[in-house]
From TrEMBL:
The gene is livG. Keywords: ATP-binding, Nucleotide-binding, Transport. GO terms for molecular function: ATP binding; ATP hydrolysis activity; L-isoleucine transmembrane transporter activity; L-phenylalanine transmembrane transporter activity; L-valine transmembrane transporter activity. PANTHER family: AMINO ACID ABC TRANSPORTER ATP-BINDING PROTEIN (PTHR45772:SF7), CONSERVED COMPONENT OF ABC TRANSPORTER FOR NATURAL AMINO ACIDS-RELATED (PTHR45772). It comes from Cytobacillus horneckiae. This is ABC transporter ATP-binding protein. CDD domains: ABC_Mj1267_LivG_branched. Residues 3-250 form the ABC transporter domain.
Length: 255
């Protein structure tokens, strides 16, 4: 277990978005969080990655309590996240978008930038090398000089992965990584996610595409109205009465 939450709760006014959720993310595996619309999935991600502070409960990363850490500190620890609508720079090239990712690991400051110090040049070189490596890994080398505005939706999803990978994370949090792409492209992206876990990365993702999740995930947690109603292997989840009830009772899961 690389990351654990203990009785995590988030209230927005009177609305309890996440309620008492204790969950362990398994290292080097694909961990999925599913649930009907408004179940609290994105909020749960936001709590772990420091975007919102929890109202109650604790978060531990490799045994260290990180509950109150701000998002930048959490990112530095090795937790990277993508968003449903990742804000890429559309008028910049794929390469330039990805180079930015590794800046998290560099130390150059304004002084270095003004005087173009050796440190700056060395770090620029490392950022470029890292960008080339992750572009290769995500299958984007052939479009690296193109403007993001001119590439396909599926390629944009890959750029979002590449950006996260460039930060040299230990866990990647992917929020609906295949939203808005067709079934063939979904399969391609699923293969890439599998490849990340095979490389030793821990993956945690939110997804609505059930078929994909069932074949991709090692472990699934199901949220409903902010509460964890089940967790287990895809096989266990498929046959879980509570889960079936939650989805039949107005959920929005699509195949
Ligand atoms: N910043 C916020 N302020 C107030 N309420 C919020 C905020 N973010 C989420 N909520 C509420 O918390 C609940 C859970 O929302 P959340 O977006 O986490 O669900 P979700 O499972 O990710 O949904 P979806 O699948 O539709 O993305 C909802 O009732 C939502 O309206």
């Amino acid at each position: 277990m690389i990351l654990q939450t203990s009785q995590l709760t988030k209230k927005f006014g009177g609305n309890v978005a996440v309620k008492d959720v204790s969950f362990s993310i398994q290292q080097g595996k694909v961990n999925a969080i599913i649930g009907p619309n408004g179940a609290g999935k994105s909020t749960f991600f936001n709590l772990i990655t420091g975007i919102h502070p929890p109202t109650e409960g604790q978060i531990f990363y490799k045994g260290e309590e990180i509950t109150k850490y701000p998002a930048n500190k959490i990112a530095e620890l090795g937790l990277a996240r993508t968003f449903q609508t990742t804000n890429l720079f559309e008028r910049a090239t794929v390469f330039d978008n990805v180079v930015v990712g590794h800046r998290l690991r560099t130390k150059s400051n304004l002084f270095d930038a003004i005087f173009r110090t050796k440190r700056l040049k060395r770090e620029e070189e490392t950022c470029k090398e890292k960008a080339l490596e992750v572009l290769d890994f995500t299958g984007l080398s052939n479009v690296s000089d193109q403007l993001v505005a001119n590439i396909s939706q599926e390629e944009k999803k890959r750029v979002a992965f590449a950006l996260a990978l460039a930060t040299e994370p230990e866990i990647v949090f992917l929020d609906e990584p295949t939203a808005g792409v067709n079934p063939d492209e979904t399969e391609e992206l699923a293969l890439l996610i599998k490849k990340m876990a095979e490389k030793g990365l821990t993956v945690c993702l939110i997804e609505h595409k059930m078929q994909m999740i069932m074949s991709l995930a090692d472990q699934i947690m199901v949220l409903n109205y902010g509460e964890k109603i089940a967790e287990g292997t895809p096989e266990e989840i498929k046959n879980n009465e509570e889960v079936i009830k939650a989805y039949l009772g107005g959920g929005s899961a699509s195949a």
